[in-house]
Design goal:
The protein has helices spanning about 5-25, 40-45, 55-65, 95-105, 125-130, 140-150, 165-175, 185-190, 205-215; strands at about 25-30, 45-55, 70, 80-90, 110-120, 155-160, 225-230. The chain has a seven-stranded mixed beta sheet with strand order 3-2-1-4-5-7-6, with helices on both faces. The longest helix is centred in the N-terminal third of the chain and has 17 residues, at about 5-25. It is α/β, with parallel strands linked by helices and about 230 residues long.
Length: about 230
């Protein structure tokens, strides 16, 4: 049985899965910050080899029981041998996002792909963003500029989450307003991959609950609460 995804992750994965089909089969996938590995399991099914790098020890321990995950950071310099590098809900946790993109790109082959997701629209920055250690949210034009500044070619940027995503975001903000965040951005970032994660026993239920809303969000393809970007390394 595949690990459970949150309702928000299902909305995001609806876009991610379509872009993965566009990319097609690949040999090697690397994921930055896979959390507990729920998406990593799905990525590994599409590749010959999969490796995740998760800095949070607790999340990495769970992920390693599911898929090939290393506890630690992705090395800053890569060998340029990766076909697809993924980083879902990671870039917004990094102060120098262009430097991070440049570093990630060193791992990717020329002509290879980077598939990313970030929280969307700066005006939506709220209590949950602060609670989990976000430096920013991204308007599509800003993310496109960051990708270009890192030497990458933006291929497609797609917002997601309109409808249910808006409701879930308001609910998370209501919860985090009543909580005290960890002292440092690093601690908040480490804990973000464990925040409100469902048990695997609810995997079928979350998939079924999210299904109609995955279709509904397609009615407003330029609106939502998150942003998925596909870029290519020249």
């Amino acid at each position: 049985m595949r690990p459970a995804l949150t309702l928000s992750a299902w909305l995001r994965y609806d876009v991610v899965a379509r872009l993965l089909r566009r990319i097609g089969p690949v040999e090697r996938v690397v994921e930055v910050g896979p959390g507990r590995g729920a998406v990593g399991v799905r990525l590994a099914e599409r590749a010959t080899t999969y490796t995740g790098y998760e800095p949070d020890e607790a999340s990495a321990a769970v992920a390693a029981t599911r898929v090939n995950v290393i506890h630690g950071l992705l090395p800053s310099d890569g060998a340029g041998d990766v076909d697809l590098l993924c980083a879902f809900e990671v870039l917004e946790h990094i102060d120098d996002d262009v430097a991070a993109l440049r570093s990630w790109a060193t791992h990717v082959k020329p002509g290879g792909w980077l598939l990313l997701s970030v929280p969307a629209f700066a005006e939506r920055f709220g209590p949950t963003d602060a609670y989990v250690g976000h430096f920013r949210r991204y308007d599509p034009d800003i993310l496109r500029e960051r990708l270009v500044a890192a030497g990458l070619e933006p291929v497609e940027l797609r917002p997601y989450g309109w409808g249910l995503g808006n409701v879930l975001e308001r609910a998370r903000d209501a919860i985090t307003r009543r909580r005290t965040a960890a002292a440092s951005v690093e601690e908040r970032t480490a804990a973000s991959g464990r925040f409100l994660q469902p048990p695997d026993a609810l995997g079928v239920a979350t998939a079924a609950a999210a299904a109609p809303f995955r279709l509904l969000q397609r009615a407003r393809p330029n609106a939502g609460v998150g942003l998925v970007a596909l870029a290519r390394k020249p």
